[in-house]
Structures are given as C-alpha cells and as structure tokens.
C-alpha cells in the first residue's frame, strides 16, 4: 500500500467555492456495496434509503474562529496564526505564516480589526510538520479576535460564516467543519426522525488531517493527528442496543466514524464503551469496522487520511470507479461539494 494509491487528478473547476442553497439541494451519489450499483440523486432523497430503526450518528462539533492576525513584537512583520488544538490553559498548537522566521521565543501581538494589539503570544516549542506550541496571554479573547477559517482551496469569501457550520453544531473546538453534516437542514432532520430513524450525537474536534494530505510514501509512516472527542454513556448504550438488535448504524462523516470506531476498539461484540480523550485511530484499507454499517460523506482530497478511511470502508476498486464517475458527471468536490451515501 502506497500513498500514491489514494491519488487522483481533479479539474480545479470542480472544487466547490460556494455552498448550494438550500443545503439539502446538493447532489447525492448512492453507492451500494452489496451489488456494486451507483445511483445519482439529490441529498434530500436520502430519506428513501433510511428505514425505521436505523441510527444516524452526527458530530456536533462547531468550528472555532481559529484564524488570527498579528505582528511580531521584534521587527513588526505581519503574521497569521492558525489555531489547531488546545493543549492546556492558554497553550495551543498552531500553524504560523510565514513560519520560517517564527522560532522559539518569537513574540506575536494579536491585533483586532483596527490593528490594535490585544493579546500577546509567544512560541514555546517547535514540533513536527511546522506545528508550533504557543502560549497566549489571554485565550478568552481569541474568539473575538479570530475568524472562522475556510480551507485553503476555497478562495471565494463566505458572506455568512454560519454556512460553514452544521445546523446542529454546538460544541466549539474544530478548525474545519465536519462537512458531511452541512447538507442537513432542520426540516430534513425532522422528517428523518418522523420516519422512525434515531439521531444520536457525538463530538470529535476536526484537526489538521482534515485539510493536509499525507506526505509520506508509506501511509503507515504518517503520524495521525490526534483529535479530542467525546462519546457519552447514553450514546454508547443506545449504539450497543442498536447493534445487538441488528439495526444499522449510519455515521455522518469521517470524523464521526473515527470517534465511534475509536470507542469500539476495546469493546466486545455488538458493544461500544463511552469515550472521552484523544482519538488516535488511523483507519486504512484492511481495517475491520466494528460499528459503522453505512456512511454519509463528501468527496475528499487526494492522498488524505479521509479518503483512506472511505476507501477502507468502500473498497479500492469501487471508490475509484465512483470518483471517476463523479468527475465525469461534474459533481462538486470537497467542503462545499456534493455528498455520498455508502450502504
């Protein structure tokens, strides 16, 4: 297995720059692993593929205003800080641009929209992959100073920042949206529930691997970026009951798969334990899924851990055929793009 096995060529015009309105009007490709069929629908048609007793599991993490602007105390050069993960009070992992001249001891003044210094940040440690550990004088002010970050492949400004949040997001912590959930509207969720489908919520704060491709030739050498997650006792009990009764567990998004499968690692057959902590599970082809029976997902970047997970769930030949068909039929890709339902 090589990282190049998960590469493909995508015309730039198929990278969605703006979201479809309403949310559930995006396209939906339905992949049936049982018979190898592929259907082309609209996302609101997902209700036709769900049945009473199914369990839909959503990631309720919300995107934080992680992009900060500042200037170096020594020299005054402009700096952009991209928060990745909170380590402790006032201490965060972050990416910094330009990063080469920002070393241990560098101090950065975080400024507001009037370019007034408000918070002081200092680089405490350098880590692999250009990640820097930074200490902030007052992290409580950061949400007021930062902006919700869009992925680097989106170049069109977003007029409504809430459009990069799911309608059910309420636990702050992600630096990128769990994009499979962006297609759901409150009305669609209500209809799904009326049809007898159970909706459960877990939390996994999406991090660096969401938007950065694997650089190692061998994906097994890739250090998976740990993400903080919570799966409650109540949700664990309901998922265990569903599996014991033979009902389908359908994960909405790869982040949801990661936290659900992480929690299932040390559990018995048809069982899942509550989980709170750092999820480090790296799902590659050959992985045996313990809880996930079906998956709602978007079309992912080449060489990404997300595409590797979807390939593990779907099968290499089938997912390649689906992506080739999506490109030929001009599906919209990535965060604001179209969706897949894999059953």
Helix content: 10-25%
How would you classify the helix and strand content by structural class? alpha/beta
From the spread of the alpha carbons, the general shape counts as globular
**Number of beta strands:** 17
Distance between the termini: 25 Å
The largest sheet has its strands arranged as 2-1-17-16-14-3-12-13-15
CATH topology of the largest domain: QueA-like
User: At CATH's second level, what is the architecture of the largest domain?
Assistant: 3-Layer(aba) Sandwich
Order of helices and strands: EEEEEEEEEEHEHEEHEHEEHHE
Counted by DSSP, the helix tally is 6
Report the C-alpha radius of gyration, rounded. Answer: 20 Å
Mean pLDDT: 94
- Describe the main β-sheet briefly: 9 strands, mixed
Compute the number of structural domains: 2
Describe the overall structure:
The chain has 343 residues and is an alpha/beta fold. The protein has 2 domains: 246 residues, QueA-like; 79 residues, Thrombin, subunit H. Helices cover 17% and strands 28% of the residues. The protein is built from 6 helices and 17 strands. It has a 9-stranded mixed β-sheet, with helices on one face. A hairpin with a 5-residue loop joins strand 8 and strand 9. Helix 5 packs across helix 6.
């Amino acid at each position: 297995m090589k990282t190049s096995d998960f590469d493909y060529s995508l015309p730039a015009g198929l990278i969605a720059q703006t979201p479809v309105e309403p949310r559930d009007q995006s396209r939906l490709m339905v992949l049936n692993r049982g018979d190898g069929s592929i259907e082309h629908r609209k996302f609101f048609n997902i209700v036709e593929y769900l049945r009473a007793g199914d369990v839909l599991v959503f990631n309720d993490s919300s995107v934080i205003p992680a992009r900060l602007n500042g200037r170096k105390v020594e020299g005054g050069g402009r700096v952009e800080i991209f928060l990745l993960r909170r380590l402790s009070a006032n201490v965060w992992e972050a990416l910094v641009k330009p990063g080469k001249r920002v070393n241990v001891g560098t101090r950065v003044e975080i400024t507001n929209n009037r370019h007034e210094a408000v918070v002081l940040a200092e680089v405490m440690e350098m880590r692999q992959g250009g990640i820097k550990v930074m200490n902030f004088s007052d992290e409580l002010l950061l949400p007021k100073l930062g902006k919700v970050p869009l992925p680097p492949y989106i170049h069109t400004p977003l007029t409504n920042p809430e459009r990069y949040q799911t309608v059910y997001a309420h636990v702050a912590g992600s630096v990128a949206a769990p994009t499979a959930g962006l297609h759901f509207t409150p009305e669609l969720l209500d209809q799904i529930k009326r049809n007898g489908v159970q909706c459960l919520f877990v939390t996994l704060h999406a991090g660096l691997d969401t938007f950065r491709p694997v650089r190692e030739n061998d994906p097994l050498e890739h250090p998976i970026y740990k993400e903080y997650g919570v799966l409650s006792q109540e949700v664990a009990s309901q998922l265990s009951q569903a599996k014991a009764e033979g009902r389908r567990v359908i994960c909405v998004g790869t982040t949801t798969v990661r936290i659900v499968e992480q929690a299932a690692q040390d559990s018995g057959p048809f069982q899942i334990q509550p989980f709170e902590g750092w999820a480090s599970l790296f799902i590659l082809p050959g992985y045996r899924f313990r809880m996930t029976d079906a998956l709602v997902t978007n079309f992912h970047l080449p060489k990404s851990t997300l595409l590797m997970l979807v390939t593990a769930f779907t099968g290499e030949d089938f997912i390649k055929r689906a992506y080739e068909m999506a490109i030929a039929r001009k599906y919209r890709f990535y965060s604001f793009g179209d969706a897949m339902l894999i059953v």
